[in-house]
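Collaborator request log, item 7. Partner lab (contact: R.S.) asked for a structural prediction of Melatonin receptor 1C to inform their binding assays.
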Amino acid sequence: MSGDANCSELAPWEPESPPTGGLTTTTLATVLIFTIVVDILGNVLVIISVFRNRKLRNPGNMFVVSLCVADLVVAVYPYPLIVFAIFQHEWTLGDIHCQVSGFLMGLSVIGSVFNITAIAINRYCYICHSFKYDKLYSYKNTICYLCLTWVLTVVAIIPNFFVGSLQYDPRVYSCTFAQTVSSYYTIAVVVVHFLVPIGVVSYCYLRIWILVIQVKRRVKPDESKLRPGDLRNFLTMFVVFVLFAVCWGPLNFIGLAVAINPLAVAPKIPEWLFIMSYFMAYFNSCLNAVVYGLLNQNFRNEYKRILLSLWYPRLFFSDLSKGGTEALKSKHSPAATNNNVAEDSI
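Returned to partner:
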């Protein structure tokens, strides 16, 4: 997924001009404008919620904020440029904007999948290894994990500059990482940036599901302290993962199929399918904040308070003195953490 990298310039069936038709361009522009608005508003709400509410300030939600930042990156620069290109029916902003847009797209997408992987590992340790959780996710360790996640993200993008794969794709009005440069490179990108992280996340959540089932059936009475809040919060992040896989899966699998057998597969991929898979992937960046609001009561309540504070500004600062970073730096025992923070974290 090197940004749009996974499957942007997937095959030699690229058109010389962008798709025509007022309905098509209007639909694409509408979807992207809606995505930008919801992406910015939703993810800003999440970040402010964690900042304001001490119940939400914990190591697990640091990764949630990091994921929000990854989603915001595309909404503030690459997506608006794509909308402009749609209205112009071509890219008129020059090569520098194209290169920067493609780089930030890659930073966002790879950052998202790596953060989702980090969240899954965090949830696995929190639920399946609760007695080691405080030590594994101390404040300093969590900061190190976050830095490592973003370092790996940048490292994953760098090869694209050596391959020379950043190009404008008129089918989706986007500057993307072209995969026609090398079939082997495309396969490596999809495997490393999508399939391997998906495998790691799937393993973590499978182990959590097994533990939850065992607790429900009382196979593991020692783990009976697992609270309903743990399950709800796990389900929230599981939904985030499923939505990411559903939105990005088609684009990645199209790229993988074309890279394995370009001559046979490429002509059979309808252009509408490629365009739809691309905009499904774009749409994913606005979904996470909606999921938090729907499935997590703490976030939902905080959303309401923040929106209410737009009419009563002094309310915005009313909770700021109640927190600090105590939740991150607290030294509860693992058992206490599992009981006391369970319903407050994601």
